[in-house]
Amino acid sequence: AFNAQNKIFLSEVRQQGLIPVIRSYLQLYTSMPIAKMAAFMDLDVEEFRTHLLRYKHKMYTPVWTSGPLLGGELKSVAGTDFFIEGEMIHITDTSVARPYGEYFVRETAKVAELNKSFRSMISHMR
Prior knowledge:
The protein is α+β, with helices and mostly antiparallel strands. Helices cover about 55% and strands about 20% of the residues. A three-stranded antiparallel sheet has the order 1-5-4.
């Protein structure tokens, strides 16, 4: 049983070996010929296409929102997505910008409340 699990695990590790490299290239560009990106990675076009499809498959996971526990909708966990049209890769940024302004206002309000509490404690100590 151990050898079978080890074999499956090592196969999965090999499959995911190029995922970080592909992700870094996808984050740099908005579109690029497949042949050019394959050349950057020293792969032939068909092998690179296989790695691209593997990347796309591995970067989607089911996310449960409601309904059966094993159900769910596939969502991308990568910050970028792409589609292939002919011999071109078209890349889009799918990450959602964090609402920094709202966070800053909430944290400022917390600090103001703490400051008010400390002043109240100090005035009661006198």
